[in-house]
Design goal:
49% of the residues lie in helices and 16% in strands. It is an alpha+beta fold. A hairpin with a 5-residue loop joins strand 6 and strand 7.
Length: 781
């Protein structure tokens, strides 16, 4: 569905759940122990009037054929209202299963489900934590029937956590036949079926079922063999994706309730939402939920393209792990920030908290899905096989139309043929002298600026190919060249520079003739950037209009390798701090400039101080309006934050961790394997969030303040990987400098030290949280 249709679907669902008083009905069920058998018929009748039992059913079968993305919007709205109807169990799992089966019996059952006359429940699970679609113990065998009766099958075994409980009109049971899987329909009231109702924490019920020599007619067999197993596997995977949407909706609702509470609840004479500690807790809720939303969007888009069964399973586990973790984090934080009232059943928050507990325990928990994703995707594999590529490497192409597999194979082959082997897996920030030839190689190929529009000499890669590009370079161990021109000033000039500035500077960035650095921070003006004091006074002489710059910049990355700097300067001391700033471009070879390197914790001269003593800068090098530099600076900070939020660093560090783990056989340790699987998903889901912001840049739109979440998630993920790398290295974690691993250089400490800096530069993560709290979450000052 297109975005407008999805938005309309969501609004319709929210309107229904509001009008039907879904939250109040959930409360009534929990407080008065109203069973689903009593409460469900009326609620389900109204759901049937909307056609939602058939939301995933083809139109030919009387359904709405919304697709997973449309159904996900309904489930997300259900999560926001803790709707008591068993949408996920019936309109999700059961309908998905029946729609996949092309047999008369399945079609008849599906028609009853779509009409709202039947609520079949899927009975598949045989042991706690089991996600397998293959029945192990529950079995069936041919039965010749009693005298005078037609034969069928006998069913024997048990099923756990079957939803809905008492409201189910019967059960869709997976069993093991003589040769393969079998799917059976067992109507409620069938002899030999014992049902134990299990009350759940959210007020709903599950059933534990026992089948004792249950005699079923031949018509009860819905499917056998691969058709049965494939249908069940598909239903479970798609159902786990829909469950993710409901969990996300519940988490988003809890964040909204918490923000409203913090804005109105006062203590010590002020709203508690003005307390920074509480603001940062809310921001972390927001970040987790936004990453979960990005992951869900990406997985839904992938599912719409058609995936293999194994890939769909993997993506379902990925998004379920992310949305479950985000909802659990939101629920726990929301209760804490509500204080004592959050611990009571009187607070609606309790309904959401318990619903999340219930959903997070059903269809697999976070750890289970993390492990499953790693198994399905071979998450520890880091070897790079030699690939072949037929023909030339094109300078330009319709990259959007190229299949991703072909694009990756092309990039991989190019790297294997052209990238210098000694520069793989560098342990330090690469210098221009090391990377110049590689930079020129990419420039000659036309691939030096993958995100720039083709009209300005870039590749113009769409977001999916840009992510693939980043991943291939990181997996191959390609070092980062000095690239401030490519990732920062180039995109800024494309949006804000004059045609003359674009013509003068952009080609020289692409060719490597100009190497740029950034002049923002100053002593006592780091996070408080508007407090800068470097001054630029206007002047005029025989050579024309110019500015005379005096002052100092600090923490200027690799300024000793650059020949140009873009900098913020104060051009009006009498104006308010942000209003008296201008944005200049300066040649570092101009007289009056002194550069002094600063060594980092790693002993590398990565940063510099830059001193300006009566430095003459042509007036034509002013970007934007005089005194309008703060607007330009914020735009550039957006570019910097999306760059700092790139998955690059985390992917590289994760590759290093995997190399170490393989060499030391750490994946045999279940604790390490679990931690690695979780970190790998953190990086994958960072890529999903990054894609959304990259699309905004590509569309030429200004980045929203929420881009700060990227920088936080990326740098803190990077840091967690670096910390585990040092821990996993045991005594080698104290070794200074490079080591050798599998014939390549390896530095245990580099990611940890680098990530420590990443949480500071570009605006500390604490400042980014302040920005999100004020500008995105609208919490009081």
């Amino acid at each position: 569905m297109d975005s407008d249709s999805l938005a309309a679907m969501r609004e319709a669902a929210l309107d229904y759940f509001t009008r039907s008083r879904a939250i109040a009905r959930r409360r009534s069920r929990m407080e008065h122990q109203v069973t689903e058998a009593v409460d469900e018929p009326e609620g389900w009748r109204r759901i049937a009037e909307l056609g939602w039992p058939g939301m995933l059913t083809p139109e030919a079968a009387g359904g709405l054929a919304l697709g997973l993305d449309g159904a996900a919007e309904i489930l997300r709205a259900a999560g926001e209202h803790v709707a008591p109807e068993p949408l996920l169990a019936v309109a999700g799992l059961s309908a998905l299963l029946l729609a996949k089966l092309d047999t008369p019996a399945a079609r008849d059952l599906l028609a009853e489900l779509v009409a709202g006359r039947s609520l079949p429940a899927l009975a598949w699970q045989e042991s706690a934590g089991d996600l397998s679609a293959v029945p192990l113990a529950c079995g069936c065998e041919p039965w010749n029937g009693r005298p005078g009766e037609v034969g069928g099958v006998l069913l024997q075994g048990e099923k756990l956590m079957v939803l809905p409980g008492a409201a189910a009109s019967g059960w869709l049971v997976s069993a093991r036949g003589q040769d393969d899987a079998v799917l059976l329909w067992v109507p409620r009231g069938t002899g030999g079926v014992s049902e134990t109702l299990v009350p759940l924490v959210d007020g709903s019920q599950a059933s534990n079922l026992r089948f004792e020599q249950v005699a079923l007619p031949a018509g009860a067999v819905l499917a056998e063999g691969p058709a049965a197993q494939d249908a069940l596997r598909h239903a479970l995977a798609a159902g786990q994706i829909l469950q993710s949407a409901e969990l996300l909706g519940a988490g988003q609702a809890m964040l909204a309730q918490t923000l409203a509470y913090l804005r109105t609840r006062t203590q010590f004479g002020k709203p508690i939402g003005s307390f920074q500690a509480l603001q940062h807790r809310c921001v972390d809720m927001f970040i987790h939920l936004e990453v979960a939303q990005a992951t869900l969007n990406e997985v839904l888009a992938l599912a719409a393209q058609g995936l293999s069964a194994e890939r769909l399973d993997a993506e379902a586990s990925r998004v379920n792990a992310r949305c479950t973790a985000a909802a659990l984090q939101a629920s726990r934080t929301a209760v804490q920030l509500h204080g004592a009232i959050g611990y009571t059943q009187e607070c609606d928050l309790s309904l959401f908290y318990k619903r999340v507990l219930c959903l997070s325990a059903w269809l697999g928990n976070v750890s289970t899905h993390q492990r499953r994703h790693a198994v399905l995707t071979g998450g520890a594999e880091t070897t790079t096989a030699v690939v072949t590529w037929q023909g030339e490497f094109p300078r330009t192409a319709d990259w959007a139309a190229m299949p991703e597999a072909d694009f990756r194979r092309m990039v991989r082959a190019f790297l294997q043929q052209r990238y210098p082997q000694p520069l793989r897996y560098l342990s330090h920030r690469a210098r221009w002298s090391e990377m110049r030839e590689w930079y020129l190689t990419l420039s000659a190929q036309g691939w030096i600026a993958p995100a720039w529009p083709q009209a300005h000499g870039g590749m113009g890669l769409p977001a999916d190919k840009l992510i693939a590009w980043i991943e291939e370079l990181e997996q191959y161990g390609v070092a980062r060249a000095p690239d401030q021109g490519i990732v920062m000033i180039g995109p800024l000039l494309i949006q804000h520079g004059t045609p003359a500035q674009q013509q003068r500077f952009l080609p020289r960035i692409l060719s490597g003739e100009n190497v740029w650095c950034q002049g923002y921070s100053e002593p006592n003006a780091g996070s408080d950037l508007a407090g800068l004091r470097t001054e630029a006074l206007p002047g005029r002489d025989a050579q024309g209009d110019h500015f005379v710059v005096n002052g100092q910049k600090i923490w200027t990355t690799l300024a000793q390798d650059a020949d140009h700097i873009f900098l913020l300067v104060r051009t009006d001391k009498s104006a308010r701090k942000q209003e008296g700033i201008s944005f200049l471009l300066c040649d570092l070879r101009t007289p009056g400039i002194t550069i002094r390197p600063i060594h980092t914790l790693a002993g590398e001269p990565e940063f510099c101080e830059v001193f300006f003593d009566n430095v003459r800068v042509p007036a034509d090098n002013l970007v934007g309006q005089l005194h309008g530099g703060w607007t330009i600076a914020k735009a550039l900070l957006g570019f910097e934050r999306i760059f700092l939020g790139s998955p690059k660093q985390s992917q590289y560090a994760l590759g290093q961790l995997a190399r170490l783990a393989q060499a030391r056989r750490l994946f045999a340790d279940p604790v390490f394997a679990q931690r690695f699987a979780a970190l790998r998903l953190d990086v994958l889901d960072l890529s999903a969030a990054y894609t959304g912001f990259a699309n905004i840049v590509r569309a030429g739109k200004p980045l929203p303040a929420s881009v700060s979440l990227l920088k936080i998630w990326a740098s803190e993920t990077f840091h967690r990987i670096g910390a585990l790398l040092v821990e996993a290295s045991e005594e080698q974690g104290a070794v200074a400098g490079d080591q050798v691993l599998d014939g390549q250089t390896f530095n245990v400490l580099s990611p940890l030290i680098g990530s420590t800096a990443a949480m500071i530069y570009g605006g500390t993560n604490e400042i980014q949280r302040n920005i999100l709290a004020r500008q995105v979450l609208d919490l009081p000052a």
